[in-house]
Amino acid sequence: MNPNDAPQRPKSKAKVIVAIAALTFLVALFSWWSARRDRVGTLRSITIAQYGDVFLYAPLYIAKDAGFFARKGLDVSLVSTGGDEKTWAAVISGSASFGVADPTFVAISDSRGQPGRVIASIVNGVPFWGVTLRQDIKPFSGPRDLDSHTVATFPAPSTAYTLQRKMFMQAGLKPMIREGAFGTLLTMLRAGQADIALELEPNVSQAEPEGARIVYSMPEVYGDFAITGLTATPESLARDPELARSVVCGLQMALDYAHRQPEASLQILTKRFPEIKPAIAKSAFTRLLATGIVPKSVVVQSTAWEKAIGLRVEVGDLTAAKSLASYVDNTFSDGAMKSCHID
To answer: What's the Cα-to-Cα distance from 49 to each of 98, 149, 229, 232, rounded to whole Å?
Structure first.
């Protein structure tokens, strides 16, 4: 035996222990990293139903295209249904996890035995403006200025038609309304078939370079108004509340982004709507932000809801309305307001 072996054995044993410890640590680190990589790299695929690609749904597209849904672990597919009622039908059937549509449809559905819940605000305000090509029609000081003027709106029972009719009635005037399909109102205006067209963006901004002027603003008349929301069934919310939290969180981040980074948000929208000229898109988006049509919060305000549901009762879609809590669940939106904001 080499006399030097005896004192070297403890040193060799220590090296082995250190090597084993280091290897164990590296294995644990690799396992943790692999698990984290899998969690981050694997997004949950869900479907959100919508009426169609509508510029007014800007928060939805920003949430998707700017990656806010992805940050919450979601791969969101959008499917267009062609109608608010069809959108809600897609949610009820389970073919979509959530719907983006007129939120009062959950109240109408509830009256028919199928309850629903509104869990976030996406468009807050009546997004219509009265525009004209006639130079002799001056900006309105009140509803009475509608006297003798014909207004083109989307067909009854649309919100646009209903609110325009209400504006006539409030002034004690006989409604002079001509109904036209989406995309035809400006054509009716050019043809002299109407004096005023009740239009939305970006159509308003597209008409302005032709000499059209805004003579009254529905956002100013009605203020907060729950016109588009995120809807879901009570069963789905109870079954998977975390999914709802993630979607609403992504939407709140998108609202933050829209108001804090309007130019970057506009770039997202111009890519999604390449048929709209950038200058027109900028004018439209600026107006939507300035008037609060694109809200700063996903929370459904009680005043906004009461106006929307009151209109449905007024026109006969509902005989009576239940309490706000029967239709609106702000739990997820309140949570998003506390913790879901961009850096």
So the answer is: 6, 38, 12, 11
